[in-house]
Amino acid sequence: MAGGYDRRGGRLALRACALLLAGTLAVAAFSCAGPESGGGRLSGSIVIDGSGTVFPLSEAVAEGFRGREPKVDVVVGSSGTGAGFQKFCNGETAIQDASRPITASEMETCRSRGIDFVELPVALDALTVVVHPSNRWLECITVAQLKKMWEPAAEGVVTRWNQVDPSWPERPLHLYGPTTAHGSFDYFTEAVVGRARASRGDYSASADYNVIVASVSADGDGLGYMGLAYYQQNASRLKALAVDGGQGCVQPAPEKVIDGSYPLSRPLFIYVSSRAMGRPDLRAFVDYYLETAKGLAAEVGYIPLSDEAYELVRGRWQEGRTGSAFAGSRPGTSVVDVLRGAS
Questions:
Q1: If you ran DSSP here, which 8-state letter would residue 226 be given?
Q2: Contact yes or no for 162/264 (Cβ under 8 A)
Q3: Residues 115-136: pLDDT tens digits?
Q4: Cys-Cys crosslink for 51: which of 81, 160, 196, 240, Cβ 3.0 to 4.6 Å?
């Protein structure tokens, strides 16, 4: 009836208004949902591999990101830095964890296969030399003594502790370390022996740092090395040695890594493939990584970069600056100094 109230039409109009209001509230609720609400809208699959040292940090980041974006499948492997770069340069992974900078030969391999990358330092590590807690006679070891143990010339020759230092006991020397596929092996040999990959071959090698932990913690004559996080997670089972690089004995403590006085300090990296940088899921993940790396690095046992360093790293990522600033840098080089020089 003209000018009157049509009950059927009125009910339809009210229902439409109710649906519109409900939709508006739903959008508002989704928009206000925080990272922990599980309201993620992205989907995809991100494959990460590489350093076993960086693995605990990347896995912690992945776990947090899964809560924010549950439809994005993030898989984190730990085949070792060297083995990981082979996969990365083959285009098998989107992100490479690395406990050392990419090498010239790895860059050439990536380049030959059309893979470019953005290099992002994410934390600092103190490569930690450990012995069994029952070892009461050794608190500090020099880099020269480590070299005498680990250099290629020691193979089959230096087999007892007193051969390294006459004041040490005449007991068997058992050495434990990562395999040649790990960046920690590359870094340790360069920092201690003076040349990357120059090492005696007759030590007990493992691709799993937890195996190294178990071996040293069960061997009163053992000595090994690993990333700081693995030591801190097992501090009741291992004893960390101070290291003297010529300036006195320094413990692998966070403040000594930050100020550069610990001789075996190093940056940890992720490398992001330029092939994947246009994907929304990957960009969101790397953004989240750089947002949370500072807090999570400390949580898993590593040392966060300085605020200035993280700011420079975020700038490098946002600009999509490809290539390596750290390739060829010497152990102990300041992250901020390298990044400033690359700006």
A1: E
A2: no
A3: 999 999 999 999 999 999 999 9
A4: 81
